[in-house]
């Protein structure tokens, strides 16, 4: 995995590739509250697909439905070609997931966390060790392998969480606000890793509320109150609204 | 049969246990503490009951009785007085637990061989002890009364009670097996519910559920390490009860340990069930204690006999796992029972365990 963040070529080819994620009329209600309201979109393979929205816009609810943690109230979707309503067990081995909250075991060392998550994905010890060696140059895992996870700085924890999510080489990666609370340098470094993963063919579905992160995405979906207000590439969106910053467009869409 | 995905889960759980030596220490010390408290404090037989005597008769007959009372290990005669009016004051000052009053015509009534009244007053604020005191005094005077009435001849009926299985009426022999039953169900339920609640709190449960691991694998991966730990605690407290409190072991250890595993499994299932309804470790802890400790102490026959409970409570006691385990452990340790005598009880306990596990796994799946 290189550190190159550039992947413009993927865009041109992407249209010809099958979709990694397709969603049609997806809806989730919690009582009277409609968290996700009849949304539809497609994510191409090898694409970084950004879900942009304020807190409570329905980003996390959407991800949770796609990875099988939450049943949709209505609508359909496919992840990696499998139905999210009926074939969750087939989806699970093919995805990686990094949640909004840092959710690794604090009382295990970094290495033990990696061994555990590798193990539940069916990797044996040698395979886990091999993957750690592969990911080492980018994620610097060997330096922290013996350290207790609780004692790691947040930036390291985030890289460890990413490592745990991609050990089993999932073709599709779901990241729910992966850079929350991390300093700008660590965030920049993290996005370089994401871009490199996409360049290697991994589809990345990422939510964020940092507007500057939107620029890293090949395509953006701007979500507001459970609905998708806009989907397109960042340059196309800027062109359409004749604005230079995604933040301005976001505020414009929300105010509308 | 065991999927390879369970192994990393179990390995991780053992690391959690190892990394938390304080909790581990508490898990082994708490049973010790409880055994000491219950083993020594719950003493079913009262001794050295403080007794007052009001002898208005002052005759050889009454003095003879008083000597008998003084000689008894159950009573300490602490006050002797002549004014019956003082009686209530003695009770109010808590100087005595009971008084015996010999009326003025005590000896004359005896000589006329009429029915002789003898006043006994006991402190009823502690109804249990009061009943015991009454029984002791009745026993003592009944013996004397028979000797007097039959005057030289053998009394027509003499009760020679022999206590089977616990000849010395040692409370510890009765209580220690009860504590094993109590602790195992409590610790088992507590361990499972708290460890799952912890994963929910930390968000790691969600992370696990996204992996290809199946709910039943999560359940087994959690249950097996705590089954091993619970079993270790069980062996520890049973050996301790056997060595320190000298609770006899008349049956086979192998049966007892086997039934222990079934019982612990039931406890883990209850913990699992609790974990499906709580979100935090604190609530899990409270609910586990209330759901296991309360019924196991009150309704299992641990101290209070089930037969004397109102009918609805007796029905409830039939679904309390400790009820069955108490019969099993007391049967094996004190009576030397084996499978031949205990199989219906073992079957009932296993049935309850299977029921709890089925409900727990079903609910666990549903929650995902």
Portion in strands of chain B: 5-15%
Give start-end ranges of low-pLDDT stretches of chain B.
none
The CATH architecture assignment of chain A turns out to be 3-Layer(aba) Sandwich
Topology as H/E string of chain A?
HEEEHEEHEHHHEHEEEHH
* CATH homologous superfamily (4th level) name of chain A: P-loop containing nucleotide triphosphate hydrolases
Q: Into which percentage range does the β-strand content of chain A fall?
A: 25-35%
Q: What's the number of extended β-strand segments of chain A?
A: 10
Radius of gyration of chain A: 18 Å
Shape annotation of chain B: elongated
Low-confidence stretches of chain A: 1-16
> How many H/I helices of chain B?
14
Helix content of chain A: 25-40%
- Supply the helix-strand structural class of chain A: alpha/beta
Written account of the structure:
In chain A, strand 1 and strand 2 form a beta hairpin. The longest helix of chain A is centred in the C-terminal third of the chain and has 16 residues, at 184-199. Chain A has 256 residues and is α/β, with parallel strands linked by helices. The N and C termini of chain A lie far apart (42 Å). Chain A has helices at residues 8-14, 59-66, 88-91, 110-120, 125-139, 154-166, 184-199, 234-241, 246-255; strands at 19-30, 33-44, 48-53, 74-79, 82-83, 95-98, 172-176, 203-208, 219-224, 227-232. In chain A, helix 4 (110-120) crosses helix 5 and helix 4 packs parallel to helix 6 (154-166). Chain B has 368 residues and is of the alpha/beta class. Chain B folds into two domains: 6-42 and 169-367, no CATH class; 49-150, abc type-2 transporter like fold (3-Layer(aba) Sandwich). In chain B, strands 2-1-3-4 form a four-stranded mixed beta sheet. In chain B, helix 2 crosses helix 9 (215-244), helix 7 (171-202) runs antiparallel to helix 9 (215-244) and helix 7 packs antiparallel against helix 11. The radius of gyration of chain B is 28 Å and the shape is elongated. Classes of the chains: A alpha/beta (256), B alpha/beta (368). Chains A and B meet through helix 4 of A and helix 1 and helix 8 of B.
């Amino acid at each position: 995995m290189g550190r190159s963040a550039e992947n413009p070529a993927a865009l041109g080819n992407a249209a010809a590739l099958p979709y990694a994620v397709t969603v049609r009329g997806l809806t989730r209600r919690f009582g009277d509250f409609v968290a996700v309201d009849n949304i539809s979109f497609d994510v191409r393979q090898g694409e970084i697909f950004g879900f942009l929205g304020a807190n409570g816009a329905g980003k996390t609810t959407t991800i949770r439905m796609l990875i099988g943690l939450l049943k949709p109230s209505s609508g359909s979707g496919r992840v990696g070609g499998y139905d999210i309503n009926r074939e969750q067990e087939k989806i699970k081995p093919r995805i990686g997931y990094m949640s909004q909250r840092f959710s690794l075991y604090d009382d295990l060392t970094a290495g033990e966390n990696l061994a555990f998550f590798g193990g539940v994905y069916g990797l044996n010890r040698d395979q886990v060790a091999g993957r750690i060696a592969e990911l080492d140059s980018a994620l610097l895992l060997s330096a922290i392998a013996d350290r207790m996870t609780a004692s790691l700085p947040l930036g390291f924890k985030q890289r460890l969480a990413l490592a745990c999510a991609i050990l089993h080489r999932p073709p599709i990666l779901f990241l729910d606000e992966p850079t929350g609370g991390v300093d700008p340098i660590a965030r920049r470094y993290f996005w370089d890793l994401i871009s490199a993963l996409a360049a290697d063919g991994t589809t990345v579905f990422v939510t964020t509320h940092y507007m500057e992160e939107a620029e890293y995405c090949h395509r953006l979906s701007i979500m507001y109150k459970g609905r998708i207000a806009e989907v397109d590439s960042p340059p196309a969106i800027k062109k359409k609204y004749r604005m230079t910053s995604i933040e301005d467009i976001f505020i414009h869409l929300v105010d509308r | 049969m065991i999927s390879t995905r369970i192994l990393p889960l179990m390995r991780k759980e053992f690391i959690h246990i190892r990394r938390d030596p304080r909790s581990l220490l508490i898990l082994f010390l708490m049973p010790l503490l409880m055994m000491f408290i219950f083993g020594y404090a719950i003493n079913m037989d009262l001794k050295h009951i403080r007794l007052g005597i009001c002898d208005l008769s002052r005759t050889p007959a009454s003095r003879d009785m008083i000597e008998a009372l003084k000689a008894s290990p159950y009573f300490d005669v602490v006050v002797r007085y002549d004014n019956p009016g003082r009686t209530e004051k003695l009770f109010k000052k808590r100087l005595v637990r009971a008084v015996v009053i010999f009326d003025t015509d005590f000896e004359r009534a005896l000589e006329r061989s009429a029915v002789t009244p003898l006043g006994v007053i006991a402190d009823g604020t502690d109804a249990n002890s009061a009943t015991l005191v009454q029984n002791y005094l009745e026993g003592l005077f009944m013996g004397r009364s028979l000797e007097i009435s039959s005057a030289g001849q053998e009394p027509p009926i003499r009760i020679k009670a022999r206590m089977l299985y616990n000849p010395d009426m040692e409370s510890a022999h009765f209580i220690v097996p009860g504590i094993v039953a109590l602790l195992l169900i409590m610790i088992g339920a507590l361990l499972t519910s708290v460890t799952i609640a912890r994963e929910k709190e930390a968000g790691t449960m969600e992370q696990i559920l996204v992996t290809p691991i199946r709910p039943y694998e999560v359940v087994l991966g959690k249950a097996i390490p705590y089954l091993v730990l619970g079993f270790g605690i069980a062996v520890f407290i049973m050996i301790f009860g056997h060595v320190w409190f000298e609770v006899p072991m008349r049956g086979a250890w192998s049966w007892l340990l086997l039934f222990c595993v079934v019982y612990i499994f039931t406890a883990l299932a209850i913990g699992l069930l609790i974990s499906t309804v709580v979100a935090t470790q604190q609530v899990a802890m409270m609910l586990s204690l209330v759901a296991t400790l309360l019924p196991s102490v009150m309704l299992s026959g641990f101290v209070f006999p089930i037969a004397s409970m109102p009918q609805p409570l007796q029905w409830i006691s039939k679904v309390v796992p400790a009820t069955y385990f108490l019969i099993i452990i007391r049967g094996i340790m004190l009576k030397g029972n084996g499978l031949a005598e205990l199989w219906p009880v073992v079957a009932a306990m296993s049935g309850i365990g299977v029921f709890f596990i089925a409900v727990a796994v079903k609910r666990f799946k549903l929650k995902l």
